[in-house]
Design goal:
The structure holds 3 protein chains of 3 kinds.
Chain A (H helix, E strand, L loop, with lengths): L11 E4 L4 E4 L4 E7 L4 H7 L10 E4 L2 E7 L2 E6 L4 H8 L8 E5 L4 E7 L3 H5 L15 E6 L2 E9 L2 E7 L3 H17 L3
Antiparallel strand pairs in A: 1-2, 2-8, 3-6, 3-7, 4-5, 5-6, 8-11, 9-10, 10-11
Chain B lengths: L2 E4 L4 E4 L4 E5 L13 H9 L7 E7 L7 E7 L5 E6 L7 H8 L1
Antiparallel strand pairs in B: 1-2, 3-4, 4-5, 5-6
Chain C lengths: L12 E10 L2 E7 L3 H7 L6 E2 L6 E2 L12 E5 L5 E6 L10 E4 L13 H4 L8 H5 L6 H13 L14 E13 L3 H11 L5 E4 L16 E2 L2 E2 H14 L3 E3 L2 E7 L3 E7 L14 E13 L3 E3 L12 E3 H11 L7 E5 L3 H11 L6 E4 L6 H9 L4 E3 L1 E7 L6 E8 L2 E2 L3 E4 L2 E5 L2 E3 L2 H5 L3 E5 L4 E6 L4 E3 L9 H18 L11 E2 L24 E3 L4 E2 H9 L5 H8 L11 H13 L3 H4 L13 H5 L16 H6 L3 E5 L2 E6 L7 H14 L2 E4 L4 E6 L3 H8 L12 E7 L5 E11 L2 E6 L4 H15 L6 E4 L4 E7 L3 H5 L3 E2 L12 E7 L2 E7 L7 E7 L3 H11 L6 E2 L2 H10 L34 H4 L2 H4 L4 E8 L10 E2 L13 E7 L8 E7 L8 E5 L4 E7 L14
Helix pairs in contact in C: 5-11, 7-8, 12-13, 12-14, 18-23
Classes of the chains: A alpha+beta, B alpha+beta, C alpha+beta.
Chain lengths: 184, 100, 996
């Protein structure tokens, strides 16, 4: 799979009876790191940052996922990034934190269809079923670190660094066709 | 292919998500300049080669990213426990007792 | 139908004939046949030649344990596989197969001369014979051995198939779908557990497929089986056939290899040939059954001699009589039933020869009823027949004495030495085994895994016992998973149970030294070899194994291990448990490399990372080189240019006007937090406190041992925010190292690290015209010496894009690195490219970058350093903040060895004759010293295409910094080159060119 991701067509990249893979529209992505009292951040963002690793929250068009004890990924519309940065900046003095724009670093695949979770078993060693709909995890897919957002039983988003996308898409494509060819 | 319990994620997950990070509880001296050559050599290079329960470090590389500590029996390859970085060394007797 | 196909028997469909070829000749079998069963149905037993003696061989078994009948299979163009077991390869129209290890033909083989020279080729033959003279090894012995030995031939074409892998998680994995496996599956499935049942055969059933006479719960075995399989599926059990559990790894991870297409004439689209499953199971039930043992006697390998249970399988499962006049030789009751089944199917069983003095009266009655002569207390001492057994010699044994023999005409010999539980996977778990004297075999004892073993694989005999045990073990795993299952009983009729004795070699009247009584068929190991090994001093079974190669073939000793152990322990005069068993290793059966590689082949072999500008480079003819996982533009040849031409041109253009370079792969880490500067002070050798916002500095990263780990330019974007760059290959490693110190040594520091490698696309502009090009495009800063001096950084706008602009130089020219959000990288590059045309802007690749930096003496970590080089060795003591109380590496740098005289230090080298030195070449002080010379360093970088007008090199030389001006010598294969030690800066040492 040598095609650069910039040449990916719009619309579904892969579509079989088993699963459909598409690239999600560009969005704003912010890596938030903070410790201690999270309430001021929650107040600004309007969403809960608590809960176990993998917990998600949504407020309007902003959503968050907890990736580590002091780490969250925030997704928002591209044009909302500057606003969020400005809104959180005043907290820095009283509540030191790190907010880094990583919108350019990553892209996301939407993986959906009746066998979407089986498709993920081709590259992910953990039990996909332990990621409940509405939650997510940072994990590994075919050797590459990814964030899986499980939006529904049969619908996932996979965040990954841009340069890994062609490699992973190749497996998702091979796998979708392989699953579709299976007689169940 | 081990299963490893991440004390931060509170999940038991495949080894593929983790990276081994050497022996645990080797604290870097607070003032290295005051440490003798022999002690510094020991800190840098000398490690136990334990047959049995071994205190070691892992990182949940493809997960929460945290380094943590573990006690693994190098004979059976079983983890007796894992615990957060910075937590004190757990008492071995109680761990092996639990296994019985 | 041939005389060997029995109508009304077996599970094959004779109404659907299948034609295939064997050694070019076309044969017809039935749908459901294996190559072996189809050839046997055609009266063909001879299927191959043996490994060492090239003896004619036929199938001895009917399953995956088969050691003899190894064939090459061709499944269409490009699809050739050697060493396939004829006993498991299913036939289909058009399948081509051939025998192996024969020259010129299977029926006449010149290599069989080895057989005539049998007395020479005993255990340890190679070790003894080929030791002398030593010089003969490379030229004579090894080519001879390699030519003569080996199994089959490797395929020469690239494999056109694809392979797959998947992870699976289940509550209970059951290996083996025979009666015990089926019963365990039911026990677990009725409790609602997620159950996976695997079997290497094309269909579930195990021994039931060979024992149709059994009745379970009032139904004939096959009717019960069909209904049970459907019932289990209805309960949600995933039944996987043609799927071999090849290995048992830690914590109940079992590797399965599923074969998907080898049995199909037409390959379905998008279907892999094989799939490797990594199954993680809460509980594992091993229900793999037992393997029959051959008897060890002279001529026990002749085609037509096979295991009695296998003959029974060929008859009952495939409808094939392996012979019409068989003789049965046995030490176990089970072979008697084989005799009865074959007799009932029309064979004239010539005799049942049993080593035991007495057997159960019922067996004798049954034999009598069929008119089969019975010879108790008899042994077999020889077989004859050139390519197929035609006679067997049997002798009475009385009080340990072997009487005179009589020959019996026959066309098959069915032997049974009893049964060995299949313990391979159990052994993979480090499970302990316990010797059972009654069964003369090892039985499973304890395993550290959450695993139980059921049925015949723990020595239980008969369908009823297997079903009962399977159900019971199923209940055990159900309980272990926190549920309680009800017990299930199965009513079994017409079961065949029995007993037997286990033998070493059969008693014989022949000279033992001349007996060719095979223990390991595949490796041609005889009982004589094993005894010789013991006589020659091998005491451990592991040594006996390696000296004789017993059990080392691809069948992993499935048939030979216990017989080998019995013989070795007899020779040693010890009990078997004192001798012990060798360790079974994965995989259980030979597994293709394809299955292990899975998806990772061809373009998917490994990740290839590309920058946003990579596509532009490709469109402009770049040659690429891999750097870590990245592919980077190496140089940009114009038509007709060699690499040297291109690099020379790129270097000159950059020095003279303007070069443009994609530096996006550089690792980048955003360091943010109130303690950011403290963290930087502790991590890097340099001091950071006084570095102002908007300034950048070259940073050097050491390990605590004092050796250089990485380097890069670091900009202070804000009071609490640093933009750190790392080497391309070091990005992940450096971030990991930083996280390690931060999380575990200094968790009190309020600072966080975020990888921004891929957040930014980085374009480097270098050359006298770099500022001129950039200045009109930049908003927010004036690109003058005063407003934006060398080593400045700023957030600004470049061509309308938000940017982090660095004024840095890795070439010695005026240089800038423009970072823009990665999605804008291509746009930035093209804007600069267009605007740069007036300056003859030239794209350059990593090679030119390497040359230009070497001319300035800038190091490449990992090329000019090798993990044993300190900042002082590299001549960069200026980068070490000596006043800092501590940093990673400070104490290490004070170690006695790191401050000692005579360390290898980085210097420049200029060859005296103007030739280019070879990177990696060793350096000596005195070229006239005797060999081996004392090597005092090596050339680390060397180029002759740069702009200094002569080849230059960097090198690590002992005490180099004190030897400036001295001559060293570089011995090469054809001559020795003299070179002068110089400083490392070859170009513009005053840095005059950095000024705008």
């Amino acid at each position: 799979m040598n095609a650069p991701i910039s040449s990916f067509a719009s619309g579904p990249l892969v579509e079989t009876s088993a699963a459909r893979v598409s690239q999600s529209a560009p969005c704003g992505r912010l890596s938030l790191r903070a410790r201690g009292d999270l309430a001021p951040f929650e107040a600004v963002l309007g969403l809960s940052l608590g809960g176990p690793i993998g917990a998600r929250a949504t407020a309007g068009e902003t959503e968050s996922i907890r990736l580590g004890p002091d780490e969250w990924m925030l997704h928002c519309p591209v044009e909302a990034v500057a606003g969020l940065e400005a809104a959180l900046a005043p907290l820095y003095g009283s509540h030191p934190h790190s907010l880094v724009d990583v919108s350019g670093r990553e892209t996301s695949f939407v993986i959906e269809g009746p066998r979407a979770s089986e498709l993920l078993t081709m590259g992910c060693p953990r039990d996909i079923e332990t990621i409940l709909p509405g939650s997510g995890r940072r994990t590994v897919f075919d050797g590459v670190t990814v964030i899986l957002w499980r939006d529904a039983a049969d619908r996932f988003r996979m965040d990954l660094w841009h340069s890994f996308a062609p490699h992973l898409l190749h497996l998702l494509e091979t796998g979708s066709r392989e699953l579709a060819a299976e007689s169940l | 292919m081990l299963l490893i319990h991440c004390p931060y994620c509170n999940e038991t997950l495949p080894e593929v998500e983790f990276a081994y990070a050497g022996e645990a509880h080797i604290a870097r001296p607070v003032n290295p300049s005051e440490v003798s050559d022999a002690d510094w050599e020991a800190f840098l290079f000398l490690r136990d080669n334990v047959k049995g329960p071994h205190y070691e470090r892992w990182r949940h590389l493809h997960g929460c990213g945290r380094f943590f500590n573990a006690v693994r029996d190098t004979v059976s390859d079983k983890f007796l426990t894992t615990y957060e970085a910075g937590a004190p060394r757990p008492d071995l007797a109680s761990l092996t007792e639990r296994l019985k | 139908m041939s005389q060997y196909r029995v109508s009304g028997r077996g599970r094959v469909d004779t109404s659907r004939p299948v034609s295939f070829t064997f050694d070019g000749k076309t044969f017809t079998g039935a749908q459901g046949d294996t190559v072996a069963s189809a050839l046997l149905a055609n009266g063909v037993h001879l299927m191959g030649r043996s490994f060492k003696y090239h003896r004619p061989r036929g199938p001895v078994a009917a399953g995956s344990e088969e050691p003899n009948a190894l064939i090459g299979t061709r499944r269409g163009a490009g699809r050739f596989e050697p060493n396939t077991r004829a006993t498991v390869q299913e036939i289909w129209d058009g399948l081509q197969t051939n025998s192996q290890n024969k020259y010129p033909s299977l029926k006449f083989d010149v290599g069989a001369v080895n057989d005539a020279a049998y007395m020479l080729f005993s255990a340890g033959f190679y070790y003894k014979t080929f030791m002398w003279p030593r010089s003969f090894w490379d030229k004579v012995y090894e080519p001879f051995i390699r030519g003569a030995a080996g199994l089959g031939v490797s395929p020469t074409e690239e494999d056109p198939d694809h392979y797959a892998s998947r992870n699976m998680h289940c509550d209970v994995l059951i290996v083996g779908a025979g009666p015990s496996g089926l019963a365990a599956a039911r026990a677990a499935a009725v409790e609602g557990l997620k159950v996976v049942l695997v079997d290497e055969s094309p269909e579930a059933g195990g021994t039931l497929l060979s024992e149709p006479q059994v009745k379970i719960d009032g139904k004939p075995a096959w009717d019960w089986l069909a209904a049970e399989v459907e019932a289990l599926k209805a309960l949600g059990v995933k039944i996987m056939t043609r799927t071999t559990a090849i290995a048992y790894y830690h914590q109940n991870m079992v590797g399965l290899c599923e074969k998907l297409t080898d049995h199909l004439a037409t390959l379905p689209a998008d279907t892999p040939r094989e799939r490797l499953w990594r199954v993680r199971a809460g509980q594992v039930v091993l229900a793999q059954g037992a393997l029959e043992k051959p008897l060890v006697f002279h001529g026990n390998d002749r085609p037509g001699v096979m295991l009695a249970g296998s003959a029974q399988t060929y008859l009952n499962r495939y409808g094939v009589l392996v012979g019409t006049r068989p003789v049965v030789v046995t030490s176990h009751d089970s072979a008697w039933y084989a005799a009865f089944d074959l007799a009932d199917a029309g064979a004239k069983v010539q005799a049942i020869v049993d080593i035991r003095e007495g057997v159960h009266e019922a067996l004798l009655t049954e034999a009598r009823a069929r008119g089969i002569p019975v010879k108790l207390s008899h042994t077999a001492t020889a077989t004859s027949g050139r390519l197929r057994v035609s006679k067997i010699r049997v002798n009475p044994v009385r009080g340990g004495q072997v009487g005179s023999g009589t020959e019996i005409d026959c066309d098959a010999v069915l032997m049974s030495g009893g049964w060995t539980p299949s313990l391979h996977l159990f052994s993979h778990t480090k499970g302990s085994l316990a010797w059972n004297d009654d069964l003369t075999t090892f039985l499973p004892e304890k395993t550290p895994e959450d695993c139980v073993i059921a049925g015949a694989s723990r020595g239980l005999w008969g369908v009823e016992a297997a079903l009962r045990d399977g159900a019971e073990k199923g209940r055990e795993v159900v309980a272990a998973l926190g549920k309680s299952g009800a017990s299930v009983a199965y009513a079994v009729a017409d079961d065949r149970t029995g007993t037997g004795v286990s033998m070493k070699e059969l008693p014989t009247d022949r000279s033992p030294g001349k007996a060719k009584a095979f223990v390991d068929y595949q490796n041609d190991v005889t009982a004589k070899d094993l005894r010789l090994a013991v006589r020659e001093g091998m005491r451990s079974i592991e040594h006996v194994k390696r000296y004789t190669t017993n059990g080392m073939a691809t069948d992993q000793g499935k048939m030979s291990n216990i017989n080998g152990l019995n013989i070795a322990s007899d020779a040693l005069g010890k009990k078997q448990p004192q001798v012990g068993l060798t360790t079974f290793r994965p995989p259980y059966t030979p597994t293709t490399f394809g299955a292990f590689a899975g998806y990772h082949r061809g373009s998917h072999f490994e990740v290839t990372r590309k920058t946003r500008i990579d596509e532009w480079a490709a469109q402009h003819g770049a040659a690429f080189e891999p750097v870590g996982q990245w592919r980077r533009a190496w140089y940009f040849p114009k038509a007709g240019e060699s690499m040297d031409d291109a690099v020379r041109r790129e270097c000159a253009a950059t020095r003279e006007s303007l070069g443009i370079f994609d530096a996006s792969t550089l690792g980048k880490i955003e360091v943010v937090g109130p303690d950011a500067v403290e963290f930087m002070n502790r991590m890097y050798t340099n001091p950071w406190t006084k570095l102002g916002v908007g300034r950048c500095r070259y940073g050097l990263l050491c390990g605590d041992d004092g050796f250089i780990r990485d380097d890069g330019v670091i900009g202070r974007m804000g009071q609490d925010r640093f933009h750190v760059t790392t080497t391309t290959g070091g990005a992940a490693r450096v971030l990991n190292m930083m996280e390690d110190y931060l999380q575990t040594e200094w968790p009190d520091l309020n600072v966080w690290l975020t990888s921004t490698t891929e957040q930014w696309a980085t374009v480097a502009l270098n050359g006298p015209n770099a500022a001129k090009l950039l200045a009109p495009l930049v908003e927010g800063v004036e690109l003058t010496e005063e407003a934006f001096p060398h080593m400045s950084c700023v957030e600004c706008t470049v061509a309308g894009m938000p940017a982090r602009l660095f004024r840095v130089s890795f070439t010695g020219e005026i240089g800038f690195e423009v970072n823009v959000p990665a999605p804008m990288g291509r746009q930035l590059w093209e804007t600069l490219w267009d605007a740069g045309q007036q300056y003859g802007i030239t794209p350059y690749g990593t090679e030119t970058m390497h040359v230009l930096r070497a001319e300035k003496g800038y190091i490449i970590v990992g090329q000019d350093t090798d993990g044993t080089v300190t900042p002082f060795d590299a001549g960069m003591g200026w980068a070490v903040g000596k006043a800092k109380p501590d940093f990673v590496g400070k104490r290490g740098l004070a170690r006695p060895d790191l401050v000692a005289k005579g360390r290898k230090q980085l210097v420049g080298l200029l060859s005296e004759d103007g030739s280019k030195l070879e990177e990696g070449a060793q350096i000596v002080f005195d070229p006239k010293q005797p060999i081996p010379m004392k090597m005092v360093g090596h050339v680390t970088s060397s180029y002759d295409v740069g702009t200094t007008g002569r080849p230059i090199a960097l090198a690590l030389v002992e005490g180099g910094h004190d030897r400036l001006g001295e001559i060293v010598h570089i011995p090469m294969p054809d001559r020795t080159i003299a070179a002068k030690i110089t400083g490392t800066v070859f170009f513009d040492p005053e840095n005059a060119r950095l000024k705008i």
